Amino acid sequence: MQGAGKLKDIRILYPGCTLTTAPVVLCFSSPQYPAPFFPFFLTVAGRFATLLDRFAMTITIASDHAGFEFKRLILGFLSEKDIEYVDFGTNNNDSVDYPDYAIKVAESVSKGEMDRGILICGTGIGMSIVANKFHGVRAALCHNAETAEASRRHNDANILVLGGRILDEKAALSIVEIWLETEFDGGRHQKRLQKIKEIENPAVE
Fold this sequence. Notes:
alpha/beta, 5-stranded parallel beta sheet
């Protein structure tokens, strides 16, 4: 879990302690204070682990001219939520070629340099085509809350693609928020993702 990295610093204060996280309970114990004398449990509402991941992740984002205004809106949203991001442009409404910007985001996610990415063009179709050419990238074009949630829960999408000429501002921000907060379900969906990985990495006979 990405967010766990921020929690492990507690070991500096309590050497030798163990720290485990679960979706609902955080459990802390130390050899100096063995259970049951000094374990304590913090019951947290909702998706505690999800929130940790969100605060820890770094987002990379880019758009072409058709998605520029939406990109500015989303950057403001990310700043308000204290989510780190890297903006690969474009930086104005002048006409540009969407592959140039999709490549930057998809490459950074593919190489593991960034946790997730967001791309915006006119319809989202062009950006999706480019991004999904990159190894390990699962770019999902989302039009509403349902597709945003499903893309994370079922497909573990690591790049969100939006259509700047398709959505209104309220819908776009709602999609971004849901997409960032939703975790991958794993389970039967992991088996399906493994089959996609096998396409990317065919067995050598």
